[in-house]
Amino acid sequence: MGMARTASMRNGEYLEGMINEYVHGKAKTRGHKSTKLVAGLTCLQFAFAIYATFLLYYMSPAVDLRNGATKIAQHWKQFIVPPHVVGRYQEASSVLVAENPPLTGTEVCEHEKIDFEQKKSNDAQMIKLKRELYDEVLDFQSKSLGTETLSELMALKSKWNLRGPNIPKVTVILNHFKRKTLCSQLDSLLHQTLPFHNVWVLSFGSPNELSLKRIVDSYNDSRISFISSSYDFKYYGRFQMALQTEADLVYILDDDMIPGKKMLEILSHVAGTDKYKNSVLGSIGRILPFRQKDYMFPSYRKFRSKEAGLYLPDPAYDITVDKIVQVDFLSSSWFLSAELVKTLFIETPFTFMTGEDLHLSYQLQKYRGAGSFVLPVDPKDKETWGDSEHRLAYVSETTVIFKDIVQVRDDQWWRALSTGYVTQWAAMHPQKIDALFYAHSLEEVKALAPLIEKFRSTVGKKAYIVVSGGKFCPCEEAATSLNWPKSVCRERRFKIFYLGIGALSGVSDSEVPVVQAVYSSMKGLIKIHNPSVLITLSDIDSNVKKALKMASETNSNQSTLVLLPRSSVPKVLWMADLRSTALPNWNKMRISVNIITQNRASSLTRLLKSLSDAYYLGDEIPISFNMDSKVDAETIRLVNSFEWPHGPKTFRRRIIQGGLIRAVSESWYPSSDNDFGLLLEDDIEVSPYYYLWIKYVLLAYHYDPQVSLPELSSISLYTPRLVEVVKERPKWNATEFFKNIHPNTPYLHQLPCSWGAVFFPKQWREFYVYMNMRFTEDAKQNPVQIPKSRTNGWQASWKKFLIDMMYLRGYVSLYPNFPNQTSFSTNHMEPGAHISAKDNVVKHDKADFEVPLLKEDFRGFLPGGKLPPASRLPSLNLFNQAVSLKGLKAAGAKLRQDVISCSPTDVVIVDHETGLPSHCAKF
Length: 923
Known about the structure:
Blueprint: H1 11-23, H2 30-58, H3 71-80, H4 83-93, H5 105-108, H6 124-144, H7 150-155, E1 170-176, H8 182-190, E2 198-204, H9 209-219, E3 224-229, H10 237-242, E4 249-253, H11 263-271, E5 279-282, E6 284-287, E7 310-312, E8 325-327, E9 329-331, E10 333-337, H12 338-341, H13 356-368, E11 371-374, H14 403-417, H15 424-428, E12 435-439, H16 442-457, E13 463-467, H17 475-481, E14 496-498, H18 502-505, H19 512-529, E15 533-537, H20 542-553, E16 560-564, E17 590-597, H21 601-612, E18 623-627, H22 633-641, E19 649-653, H23 659-665, E20 675-681, E21 684-686, H24 690-702, E22 712-716, H25 734-737, E23 747-749, E24 757-759, H26 761-774, H27 798-809, E25 812-815, E26 825-827, E27 875-876, H28 885-895, E28 906-910, E29 917-922
Parallel strand pairs: 1-2, 1-4, 2-3, 5-11, 12-13, 12-15, 13-14, 15-16, 17-18, 17-20, 18-19, 22-25, 23-27
Antiparallel strand pairs: 4-10, 6-7, 6-9, 8-11, 20-24, 21-26, 22-24, 23-25, 28-29
Helix pairs in contact: 2-3, 19-20, 26-27, 27-28
């Protein structure tokens, strides 16, 4: 009975055979049976004793089975330990059930077979396209960011130092499924010039879980841990694990990345620099598609297209990264501070099936202002490479080559771009649009629709709309409300952006997630598109309004937030006709209403009602009441009881009677160059559209930096029917006069209006100084005598002094011109300081002064439905004769009666801050 066995004989078979030999009577005699039985039992007991000894010692986890001294043990374990016993032992000592015991690294390690050369493209066109695009990107970044080589990066001062005192702790996370690269990764990491703190090997739903576990066990290194789950957490699981690290930095590697031995040192050093500390670093990245000539964005996998973007580095096209380059997202490896990992989970991802790489970079930029960078390499030193064997990417199929996955990833990056992700294309090609609308609900979309349509239908104008998306305002329903096809929500073209606010807020009732999502997305969209104005409704949710305000203020190119009352939206369609250079000044002007009143309470009541019924676009409009000392009690009670919801209300009352000259001229004084004064006597009545006219004119002719009209000193609300400065006071009709140009063109006139006009701050300061230098109790002492003008004899008129100044300096007022002299204000010619005064010999016919008020949108009357260019505005002199602006200046200079003496070819130049005359200059 020998102990010899074939190599294939299993331990159980040998013991079973020995017992069978005894039972089947191979002993020859009965006496011998007893002896043989004892001998057999003794042998059996001895065999089990040997088995137990080997089992208890050599199966101990403390024993390193890779050492040469244990080769015999390995042999014996294979020979003597039955597999079912091994299984029961491991089941008792581990969660996993292993069929075989841990082996040496040599025996357990497997390696990918790479029996082909690195793939190279021979497509000359593609090589050219890719190279050109890469050069463009690098050139742009070198000028805007500064791109460093590896040696330049390593020369930068860093927080982390390999030699101390600040040696970083780095947790490396390896995610494995089917590849056979774990040993190569661990070997590389064990030989890093900067030692790692921990390595976590993850196996989520892997069919190779047991073999991966054996490999980790075989290294017998307490710093290397194996973490497994039967559930497949896919691509986000490794980042969820990274949240648990106590290290300073995290290095997450795909299973096809074999880092060079200097990578941890290089990555840590760069991550510790001031320039790149708020970044995610890697070795492979992608630059997303650029817009095509048809304004569409292609798929990032589109072949033979420069616009499809770049994969960096790309050995197939001989593109090596030798300078650090910013990319739109990283692939295959990510190195970042442990703190930044949290950012990935601020928003619910578009999908958990793929796209964690893009989602990480997008969230980091959106909420942390962090960039994604591919590090440069030393082409001659593979130890500086994070991807030392790129051919691994071609060994087995990857998810990104399947059509449905490509579609999902295309949808994902487009969603990122359309919710404010500033990609390399967006950084290199900043857009400039006129308006960006924001609607948080479908009702808001419907309310804004007329203005959106007007902008989009106006030649030369660009406007897009942003909707909240999700439960607040679904994109397709918003498109339907705008009479757009639902397909606009799926096209990769700028038109409608939906933020998907629900991805952040979920079921939360807190306003914080909504504010955060709106602000972060809108900040990016504003940076990409640089809208002149960001338009929304004034009654939008207050928290959303705050977010929009903050987002608009982040743009250095002036994007002005415009808050419109719902009822005003159809009334401001003329916004689309303004230049994009004028639109940002929407909120700059401050127009105050200044009423001069004394004892005409019924007239004042009519004026106040007309003011209350007008459209104000949500602007703040201060109102002041200027009363002389003899104001009556009824007027005081009326003023006190008047409610004005559009701004502050101010009272001024004289102690000593001042008269009309002082009452009007002292009723307003500008506080800044953006402060405009509307002066109204109490027998005036205004149109509901008066404020819209003022704002439109100011934006078109005063606040547009492309328009130069320094002669414009006021805006009239009234259209005169008489030439009042001529003795005969002939009737005059602007519509008839300008019929050869356009019957309803607005025009410039040298005559200021006293029956409803807005005065400009710079020229009003001039007027104050001028009047102070010329005003006397005896008007006949005024030296200014305008040839053939009735104004020379006016005694108690503030307007006479303003006429004099405007004539001498060539200033004009802009007048409306609509059919039948329909205007934005009218004078009811009620008894006062001038009308029906005892010493006034002029008889006034009310029909010559009272004009109809405009009760409908004025755009339909204007030439081409909008204000004409400033260069096409006709101009009239004081006597209603057509004269150029230069001619007006020449007439005033020729008179040589200004407050300082100038030659006939010069006019007086004034310090606009003080209103004081400064010097003479040619016009």
